[in-house]
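Progress narrative, Year 2. Work on Universal stress protein from Pedobacter aquae advanced from sequence curation to structure prediction during this period.
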Amino acid sequence: MENFATFQKILIAVDDSKYSYNAAKYGFALAKKLGAEVGLIHVNEFPVTANIAADPLLGDPGISIPNILDIQKESAVNLVNKIKEEFAQDLSVSEFILEGNITDEVINTAKSFNASLIVLGTHGRTGLSHFIAGSVAENIGRHSVCPVLIVPTKS
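Result:
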């Protein structure tokens, strides 16, 4: 088993949910206690569908995929800045705002960042919603090369 002193680079995966917020709070507190560097990652998945229909009679140009990607990127930057402002204080934080498959991007970033621990939250889905949506936290835990700390949020 690893010694806690070996956790010098903690990668915290966040999205815009209360579950993620709780995990970020926990991850930053742990990083402070261990004197660890933090990597903060947010991954935007590519939109599956988009309403690109326009109504020229009403002057509505519609919305296109590039517009959605720009909106997602702006929201991600705002989210990461908000979390850093609230929790980082004097910690060294590297930011990773990426697009793609969440599991793949977190695993690849953990490798390139040389993370010794990944911290993330879980939505706690069960039953049919878990079967349909799967579990990002479970997939990351299954494929990670470093330990993964999944922070539960009890409602």
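The mean pLDDT is 83. Residues 72 and 78 are 10 Å apart (CA to CA).
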